[in-house]
Design a protein that fits this description.
Layout lengths: L3 H12 L21 E3 L2 E10 L2 E8 L6 E3 L4 E5 L4 E3 L16 E5 L8 E6 L3 H6 E13 L4 E5 L8 E5 L6 E6 L3 E3 L1 E4 L3 E13 L4 E12 L5 H6 L2 E2 L11 E2 L7 H38 L1
Parallel strand pairs: 1-5, 2-8, 5-16
Antiparallel strand pairs: 2-3, 3-4, 6-7, 7-14, 8-13, 9-12, 9-15, 10-11, 10-14, 15-16, 17-18
């Protein structure tokens, strides 16, 4: 457990937005990197990209010199144990769902040495040219061993603003204005692999909309292998009614043969109940006829 001084420092790290570093412009000539990559320090943004007539969700790797765009399928965001903090003993943080003093992994709203500084932007030159007012970032589902909460906080006295939480039903929509660059606090309740499914829908300047989807991959904790996060597959039902609906393929999903057996059992149970009801009605009618005859 961290000391009181450490908890105070955590509260400050969670609360105080960076006074600089958010003003940026992206070079339209930035390349699309290929191949696996592990992003475990430095500045990283998620955001839509428009190129060659196609809308995609990409990861902007600003730690690389010069910066590049990466596919979320190639990149794993690694949250090292250097990001571990204790939940402050403050009622303002009860929304995190963890007891005060609980150790969690935090990607903070402010930049911290040796920890990924994760945010999002809508500043790709193609997006600036073709998007209208902005985009909607929809959280479609999360699979992981613990809670995930993403929130903003303005100043040490500002109330936390929860943006996404695995304690809330999906989908969870977040509006982002065009030409925006934002960082937030990402709090992971337990170490392990987290898969975060996102849709980004752009309002087009010429009318209509365009939607792109991606799965962000996190390896939380030094003991978690980034290759495991890269290899994991996320399957979601057409509409996720609750956080429990997201499951890694081959993991928490109900086997197909078991689903078939359960379906047959349900059909047989319904047929049995109908048969009992029909026989009961016949017995009552016969009894009524016999009483009438008597």
């Amino acid at each position: 457990m961290l000391t009181l001084v450490s908890r105070v420092l955590l509260a400050a790290a969670l609360a105080v937005p960076s006074p600089d570093g958010l003003s940026q412009s992206l070079d339209p000539r930035q390349e699309q990197a290929t191949g696996p990559a592990v992003l475990e320090a430095g500045h990283v943004d998620v955001g839509p990209r428009y190129r060659d007539g196609a809308w995609t969700v990409q990861i902007h790797d600003d730690e690389r010199v010069p910066p590049v765009w990466r596919s979320p399928d190639d990149a794993v965001i690694r949250v090292r144990d250097a990001a571990r903090q204790a939940i402050p003993d403050d009622p303002a943080y009860r929304f995190l769902g963890e007891a005060p003093g609980t150790s969690v992994h935090v990607l903070p709203q402010t930049q911290q040495e040796g920890v990924v500084w994760l945010g999002w932007n809508t500043q790709d030159p193609g997006v600036l040219e073709h998007a209208g007012r902005g985009v909607t970032m929809n959280l479609r589902g999360v699979h992981g061993p613990g809670r995930l909460t993403v929130f903003l906080q303005s100043g040490t006295l500002g109330a936390p603003q929860v943006l996404w939480s695995t304690d809330t039903a999906y989908p969870q929509a977040l509006w982002v204005d065009r030409n925006t660059h934002t960082h937030a606090n990402w709090v992971f309740g337990r170490p392990g692999v987290y898969l975060v499914a996102l849709d980004v829908t752009a309002e087009l300047a010429g009318g209509g909309t365009a939607t792109a989807s991606a799965t962000l991959r996190f390896a939380v904790g030094d003991a978690t292998d980034p290759d495991q996060a890269r290899a994991a597959a996320l399957t979601l039902p057409p509409a996720s009614p609750s956080p429990a609906a997201a499951a890694v393929a081959g993991g928490d999903a109900v086997p197909g043969w078991l689903a078939v057996l359960l379906g047959l059992a349900a059909v047989l149970l319904v047929a049995l109940l109908i048969g009992v009801a029909v026989r009961g009605a016949a017995v009552r009618r016969r009894a009524e006829r016999e009483r009438g005859a008597a």
